[in-house]
Every structure is written in C-alpha cells, then in structure tokens.
Amino acid sequence: MEKIRILLVDDHQIILDGVRSLLKGVNNIQVIGDALNGEEALNTLQVLTADLVLMDLDMPKLNGIDATMRIKEEFPHTKVLILTVHNESSLIRNLISIGADGYLLKNSCKEELLDAIYKVQSGEKYFSSEVTLSLMQEDNSRDELLKSDIEFTKRELDVLRLLADGCTNKEIGEKLFISHRTVDTHRTNIMKKVGVNNVAGLISFAIKNNLVE
Q1: Is the pLDDT of residue 97 over 60?
Q2: According to the model, what pLDDT value does residue 142 have?
Q3: Domain limits for position 65
Q4: With contact defined as beta carbons under 8 Å apart, do 189 and 156 qualify?
Q5: Tens-place pLDDT, residues 138-192
C-alpha cells in the first residue's frame, strides 16, 4: 500500500511537532513537510506532492479558508482536512462550500485523527461528532424539513448528492454525462425547492435528510 503523503499546516510550531509525533510510526502515513501559513503551504505544494493537507484556520499571510480555496483550485486532487479549535456552524458551512473534505477539532484523539485521514483519503467526507452537532443545531426550522416534503427528480437527487460529496459542476457533469451548464440549472432548481441560496445550504439539507453519508 502506498503511503498517504501529508502536509501539515499550522502557525504554531508546537502543534506541528505534536501532530508529526502522533503520526510518526504509522506505517501507511508519511508527513512530507510542514508550513506555518497558507502561503507557505501553497509554495510547498508547488514542489512536493501531497495527498492530503491537514490545516489550521487562523494563520498569518494566508488563512486556512483562503488557502483551502486556492488548494482546491490549483491542486484539485489534494484533499484538505481542517484541524482547528473553531466550531461555529457558519464557518464550517463556509469551508464545506469551498470544498474542504473534512473538519476536525483539536481536542480530537489520535484514533479519530487517523480515522479522519483514512476516510478523507478514501474519498469520503469527515466531520467530527461535535461539528456535526453544531451543523444540526443551526436553523431549527429547517431541521423539521423532510425530504418527503419536496419532490426531486432522479437527476436532481444525483446532482444534490454529488454536490454534498464536494464535487464541482464540471466533475458532476463528467460523472453524469451532462454539461456543466445543465448541472448549474439543476443546482438552481434544487436551491429554489429547498429554499437556500448557496451550496453550503444544500449540503446542510442533504446531511440533515440523510441524502449523503
């Protein structure tokens, strides 16, 4: 089995050292380097290939949100797993909408960190239980909205599931053999049915209604 190549990004050296120590000796994981901010991370990715970036949010020069957006644009095959102290639902939704593959809190144990790394690397999304709870508690009125109340076409459900899986319009089009413009039309129609105005809202709806794991 090839090792999962990980780049660590955090502006606190003690955190970098601690996470590196936790991952040391795990047979199928290799920490290829670390960076103290998003700018350093992007520069590192220009010369080193990482399968996964384990990244903090609060950093100088280029924060984790902007860095995630840039990584997803410039290195679309690289996974991004957020590791932070922040648990605000609006922040989590923002990261989901720009393509973060997982969201983990710094109070997590080694076992959960490894579980998150393996799941994200395998193509799944990972959100710690506290993060999921934070998402579910926001906007109680929408918590009561059941998928049975809304009629979706099969194609709309396909698009919704793939959006919740972090796919871009282009990727969805390739998977479903339709143009990205058609995908955009379906996405707009789904938003109108659900009553949201962004992808984060669609992902939240999909999660709450068990339309995606």
Answers
A1: yes
A2: 47
A3: 4-137
A4: yes
A5: 544 444 444 446 888 889 988 998 888 778 888 999 999 999 889 999 999 998 8
**Same domain (yes/no): 122, 157:** no
Place of tokens 């059941």: 146
213 falls within a domain:
no
List, in sequence order, the alpha helices (H) in 88-168: 89-97, 110-121, 129-137, 140-143, 154-164
The secondary structure of residue 48, as a DSSP letter, is S
pLDDT in tens, 6-21: 999 999 999 999 999 9
Q: 97 Cβ partners below 8 Å, 6+ apart?
A: 198, 199, 200, 203
Is 127 in the same domain as 33? yes
Output the six-digit token pair for 188: 């707009």
Output b/e per residue, 5-23; b: 16+ Cβ within 10 A.
Answer: bbbbbbbeeebbeebeeeb
- Phi, psi dihedral angles at 21 (to 5 degrees): -65, -40
CA distance readout (Å), 141 to 87, 144, 212: 21, 6, 20
Question: Kind and range of the H or E element at 4?
Answer: strand 4-9
Helix axes 180-194, 154-164, angle to 10 degrees: 90
Q: What pTM value is reported for the model?
A: 0.63
Give φ, ψ of 166 to 5 degrees: 90, 10
The Cα 191–Cα 201 span in angstroms is 8
pLDDT value of position 195: 82
